Amino acid sequence: MLVFVVSFATLVCTVAARPSLNYLENQNHFAAENESEEVRSEAIKRLLEVFGMEDPPAIHGHKQAPQYMLDLYNTVADVDGVTKDPYLLEGNTVRSFFDKLRSEQVEFRFNLSTVARTEKILTAELHLFKLRPQATLTFNRHHFCQVSVYQLLDTTKTNNTQERKLLSSRLIPVHSTGWEVFTITQAVRSWMVDEGSNLGLHVVVRTLGGSPMDMKLIRFASGRNHHQSKQPMLVLFTDDGRRSTTLESTATSSLPHAPMSGPPSRSARSLDYSEEEGATMPCQRLPLYVDFEEIGWSGWIVSPRGYNAYHCKGSCPFPLGQNMRPTNHATVQSIINALKLIKGIETPCCVPDKLFSINLLYFDDDENVVLKQYNDMVAGSCGCH
């Protein structure tokens, strides 16, 4: 009978313990999930910091980037977004803004609130699409008109009696059609100093004799009545002051990489080497594809879909050959390690010895399209340092 009681007690304790064990297992599972989510959240936050953002831009639905910005991106970047030549772009940021007034008249205003006060304004351009004349013109095909762009001024301010200030003036063929570009850097710089002074721009068209021309004869596309591809646009070239390290190359023509229009297969990205293989493998550059879609950024990044950052892996054994691209310091360190002259001196490390920048074309929170260049994002080559 005693045996039965003990066995029964043991059975009761065992049964009672099972829910507790399940509870602990669930708690451990939830804790692991929370920890994983925290790590992911922190990792995304750090990656945003690399791209100079606190939060990812809000997604407002599918939008079409201006053709000018798409063409500019393709001019400065290759298929993976890597910079073709760092001197092709003035500064490291180009922003495009659409006219906020959406007026039928030749007056335009652009909201520049997304531009940081710390950014240096290099060049500002007003892009206007000239339409074909609506009325029959008596002018010959070689006739020109004078198009002038004015900055509207606040006459209520002290000592300011002018209503507008001339920014740019050009002669344009009357019968021409297409984009016309006017430099308005002076106005934008003043707006950045005093945001309240941004009253907009006014465009005036005159004959060569100075007489006003009928706007039915000389027309520019407006934000209200014409397709987005022809809307008035302000293009701003700035520099945010970020500088590259000394590893940045002046051009990427020497960057050896296979063109990659999309992410490699998951099996290729997950391919790794064991510690033993990594220890015997000589220092070399290996793929490291950053997929913006997997990160969750494909909704606001226009191009590229991802890029190959590459990474360096392998050993730097003595003696270091020139193919290891060693520095003099690494060579000396390797010798000291081999001779065991000083305790605790390790072999040199396999690290990037040349870095390249990438370009990102994306929508900001105000649906403006931005082209930004980021330094030191791609390992161009590896060496023992």
UniProtKB/TrEMBL annotation:
Gene Ontology molecular function: cytokine activity; growth factor activity
Statement: the UniProt record of this protein carries the keyword Lipid biosynthesis: no
Signal peptide: 1-17
Compositional bias of kind Low complexity: 246-255
Subcellular location: Secreted
One cellular component term from this protein's GO annotations in UniProt: extracellular space
Domain named TGF-beta family profile: residues: 266-385
Keyword vocabulary terms for this entry: Disulfide bond, Glycoprotein, Growth factor, Secreted, Signal
Residue segments, region Disordered: 246-274
Location, primary (coarse class): secreted
Pfam (any one): TGFb_propeptide
GO biological process, one term: tube morphogenesis
Taxonomy, superkingdom: Eukaryota
CDD domains per record: TGF_beta_ADMP (cd13765)
Entry's family note: Belongs to the TGF-beta family.
Name listed for the protein in its UniProt record: Anti-dorsalizing morphogenic protein
Organism: Seriola lalandi dorsalis
